[in-house]
TrEMBL record:
Entries under PANTHER family matching the protein: ANAEROBIC DIMETHYL SULFOXIDE REDUCTASE CHAIN YNFH, ANAEROBIC DIMETHYL SULFOXIDE REDUCTASE, SUBUNIT C
UniProt keyword annotation of Chaperone present: no
Gene Ontology MF: a single term: dimethyl sulfoxide reductase activity
A GO-annotated cellular component: dimethyl sulfoxide reductase complex
Biological processes annotated in GO: anaerobic electron transport chain
Transmembrane segments: 6-26, 38-61, 81-100, 107-130, 142-162, 169-193, 205-224, 231-255
Name of the protein: DMSO reductase anchor subunit
Database matches in InterPro entries: DmsC
Amino acid sequence: MHELPLVFFTVLTQAGAGAFIILYVAHKLSQVDSRQLGVGLFCAMVLFGLGAVCSTFHLGMPMRALNAFSGIGRSPMSNEILATALFGTVGGLSALGLLLKKGCSGVFNALAGIAVLLGIVFIAMIPRVYQLETVATWQNGYTTLVMVLTAPVCGGIIAAALGAVRLGALFGALGAGLSLALRSGYIDALAAANERLVQAQETWFTAQMALLVVVLAFCMMTFIGRLNNRAVLALVALLAIAAELAGRVAFYNLWFITM
């Protein structure tokens, strides 16, 4: 699958950005201490960086990657790449500073706050790339919803595993619950565009839904205080990522040009 690097890019970077944002908010709500914040933000940025590296495998000629910045302001893809670079840089610097406790912590906290805003912009930029009039299965409001929900679904449970237990579990439960609630309407919209392609993705969509049900159940147990085992939460985070990867594979498999 030629788009596989983009599958990992979109899911892992959104998961990392989502975890970063939730951890920062949890710290402001005194749900994680400074040490947990430093470690958590660093882990979130490592995941984000891994996703960004995956995207380079989709480039036919990596040496010409800088050409993608030529369309900033008018090209959704250029805007997405710029948002990736800005969040990666500011988020990475703030996470590293808070982890190593180098210099004034107030400066790195402020940088983390700026990174949160950049992360929100980055998450919003990704689905804009796929609002193409020539691809009927992508040109709908559900594309934005299902892509944006990756951030709370994955980022929430990752944040919970990194210390923001209740807030992370809440975001994870809301994200998974909304994704499941939207599923019927999403499938109907896709079928109206190309029913044959949708039927071909049934296995991927079914796997995603089954995993999301498991993630939702564990997030709810965590939120009400019935689960607080970091190892289990880490495993659930992997299930959440697997669920979104399955959904994203199906999404890219839906590509076709209307005539």
